[in-house]
Amino acid sequence: MIRENPDLIAAIRDRFAHVDSCPFQGPRIFFENAGGALTLKSVVETSAHYAAIPDNQGRDNPAAHALVATIDKAKADLALLMNAPSGQFFAGESGTELLFRLIRTACVNAPEGAKVIGSSIEHPASRSAAQRWAGIAGLDYVNVPHDDASGQVTPADYAALMTPDVAVATILHASPVTGMGMDVAGIVQEIRKVAPECMIIVDGIQHAAHGQIDLAAYDVDGYVISPYKMFSRHGYGIAWISDRLTALPHDMLLNAPATGWEFGTRDTGAYATVSDVVRYFEWLGGEVSEATDPRARIEAAGQAIHAYETHLTNALLHGTGNLPGLAEMAHVTVLAGADNPAREGLVSISVTGHASPDVVRLLNDNGIRTHTRKADHYSGNVLDPLGLSDCIRISLCHYNTEGEVAKLLGILSELAPAA
């Protein structure tokens, strides 16, 4: 639906800041969306507006009342966006910090001798937190190996290692290294078959910009996003927690309300920009469907985004016009396979005879922004088993175009293997 409508693509691009140029570099194509998506212009305007307001929430004056109303509206918008009929949303320092806090709380409240289960595909934000707090709480950590060839972990993989004493589980919704999405609902179903009371926490940071979030369908206890990867800005993360997780003893001020999870005064502008993101999804849903209900428009937007990004990644992998795709270039290896239906707007590659940083630098010199993933504490869990010291991550979003893909293919097709 987006693909067939050039006017809509232009309208989408017009809503984002710096869509085709960098204030430091000049004209450029942005294929580094997994590192942080482009920012909505409305988010920039909202941030500036709230940054100038000196008042705090919780006072008895008109400004304070307006700030509280803004935050309440943002939380209602988040519930709409993520289809959350219960539980609560709150802001923290970052997505990583929130994952640590949720996982820590679940672990220290787990029964003595219980287990924590997670997978080797996870980002270190959840994997590090689970292993650290399992150790402190005296719990056994169970590792579910992912499949190196597909870049995924499946419900069957979790099921094979599940036991009734698993009290905490972590799941990655989408990998920022392989680009593959996981079947969260299917994994949860397998976990709850064996350990129905397990606290399940999901890292949705990479997935949020590329597809729909449906908390009502997942049956989880925690879900974390980083808004800067979903068209907002840096400086905060958002967590949703179930009523069960809300009620657990957790870090809080003495004599404070028992359901409170936030520390200190949060940035009202950060919350307000969440509403800007939700309004954008609603607008896009209205452009690609006849829906009038806000949630139905959000679902339509998610479907259209997924379909268009699939088209773009297929063009990247299999070619466009007379240009060969990455899968057809003998000197290019595609991580997790070229034909992988779980892919969410991201293709990672290695180029025979060329170090990934050199390729990224070449692309940057030609006005194309990509990124090197190294086999370090962020990506070694994925790259080390493949025998790779690094790879080139090309991450797209629905404001990218087939013409931008073609320019990248043209450069890489001429990059002959080094002698």
Descriptive account of the structure:
Keywords: Pyridoxal phosphate. It holds the Pfam family Aminotran_5. This is Nitrogen fixation protein NifS. It is a single chain. This protein is an alpha/beta fold and 419 residues long. The protein folds into two domains: 153 residues, Aspartate Aminotransferase, domain 1 (Alpha-Beta Complex), CATH 3.90.1150.10; 234 residues, 3-Layer(aba) Sandwich (Aspartate Aminotransferase, domain 2), CATH 3.40.640.10. Helix content is 40%, strand content 15%. The chain has 14 helices and 15 strands. A seven-stranded mixed beta sheet has the order 4-10-9-8-7-5-6, sandwiched between helices. Helix 8 links the parallel strand 8 and strand 9. Helix 2 packs antiparallel against helix 10 and helix 6 runs parallel beside helix 7. The longest helix has 25 residues.
Strand content: 15-25%
Q: Stretches where pLDDT falls below 50 for ≥5 residues? A: none
Give the fraction of residues assigned to helices. 40-55%
Rg over C-alpha atoms, rounded to the nearest angstrom: 22 Å
- The CATH architecture of the largest domain is 3-Layer(aba) Sandwich
Number of domains: 2
Counting copies of identical and different chains, the oligomeric state is single chain
SSE string: HEEEHHEHEHEHEHEHEEHHHEEHEEHEH
What structural category arises from helix and sheet content?
alpha/beta
What fold name stands as the CATH topology of the largest domain? Aspartate Aminotransferase, domain 2
| Helical stretch tally | 14
Query: What general outline do the C-alpha atoms trace?
Result: globular
Number of strands: 15
Largest sheet: 7 strands, mixed
Strand order across the biggest sheet?
Answer: 4-10-9-8-7-5-6
Distance between the termini: 44 Å
CATH superfamily of the largest domain: Type I PLP-dependent aspartate aminotransferase-like (Major domain)
Overall pLDDT score: 95
* The CATH class of the largest domain: Alpha Beta
Organism: Pararhodobacter oceanensis
Protein name: Nitrogen fixation protein NifS
InterPro entries: Aminotrans_V_dom, PyrdxlP-dep_Trfase, PyrdxlP-dep_Trfase_major, PyrdxlP-dep_Trfase_small
Keywords: Pyridoxal phosphate
